[in-house]
TrEMBL record, chain A:
A GO term for molecular function: heme binding
Topology with respect to the bilayer: Multi-pass membrane protein
Species this chain originates from: Ancylobacter dichloromethanicus
Entry protein name: Succinate dehydrogenase hydrophobic membrane anchor subunit
Pathway: Carbohydrate metabolism; tricarboxylic acid cycle
Cofactor requirements of the protein: heme
């Protein structure tokens, strides 16, 4: 994206405003911490629930997981965890995969994987909640 | 990359004597990657519950087998270790705890705490589930 000076009305200052050397400022760092805090709080709520449900029969499990409060906690947890997974693995890939093509493929695979895992989990929770 | 080796490079991991804080940093990343794939366990369990009684029985059987429980114990330890490591990062984010004393203490607390809490967790599970 090379913009020759004069072809744009945006000043050079405006084009880089808010962007660091990684082209995304502190947004990545902030979301890592934000989702980390959300994960921590949601795990503390979800863990006792999962322990209670673990080992129970199918009907009892569906009844418990389908409760709105439980389902909402699980949905929030899945969303926060998968977002945290996505940006965390992105850093790992950027640190260790240096060939441009492989790196881009790995980053795409990372995005696909985390969205697929999150969507699958969310769909399961919603299906159980809506009594399917 | 041509010419890259001619510039002075900063020393990498293998130059340093292994230190506890360094190990905790590495383990934090490894547990993060393990948990990345470990989330599949939760999602598989949810999908099985949402699919059918038969599928749920199969997955419950797998998770309840000795090898399944072993994976779950490892998963819970990784989760707790990564969580304590994350709390340590929250403290560092405030600018505190970077001195030699605190950072060594954090490292020891992360190891000791993660093992103690994992044992406590499974004792509770064993007591509840019998």
């Amino acid at each position: 994206m090379s913009v020759s000076p004069g072809s744009s009305m945006r000043t050079p200052r405006r084009r880089v405003a808010g962007l660091g050397s990684a082209r995304s400022g502190t947004g990545h760092f902030w979301l890592q911490r934000l989702t980390a805090l959300a994960n921590l709080l949601l795990i503390l709520i979800a863990l006792p629930i999962v322990i209670c449900v673990a080992g129970q029969g199918h009907a009892a499990t569906l009844a418990m997981l389908g409760h709105p409060l439980v389902a909402i906690v699980l949905l929030l947890l899945l969303f926060s965890v998968c977002y945290h997974m996505k940006i965390g693995m992105q850093v790992v890939i950027e640190d260790y995969v240096h060939a441009e093509g492989t790196k881009v493929l790995a980053l795409v695979a990372n995005t696909f994987f985390t969205i697929a895992v999150g969507s699958a989990g969310a769909f399961a929770v919603l299906k159980i909640s809506f009594g399917g | 990359m041509a010419g890259a080796a001619e510039r002075p490079l900063s020393p990498h991991l293998q130059i340093y004597r292994p230190m506890l804080t360094m190990m905790m940093s590495i383990v934090h990343r490894i547990t993060g990657v393990a948990l990345y794939f470990g989330t599949l366990l939760l999602v598989i369990w949810l999908l099985a519950a949402a699919s059918s009684a038969r599928a749920f029985e199969v997955v419950n059987g797998l998770f309840g087998s000795w090898i399944g429980l072993l994976v779950l114990v490892g998963y819970s330890w990784a989760l707790i270790h990564h969580a304590i490591g994350g709390i340590r990062h929250f403290v560092w984010d405030t600018g505190a705890g970077f001195g030699p004393g605190p950072r060594e203490l954090f490292a020891k607390l992360t190891i000791g705490g993660s093992i103690a809490l994992t044992v406590a967790l499974w004792i509770v599970i064993w007591l509840v589930k019998g």
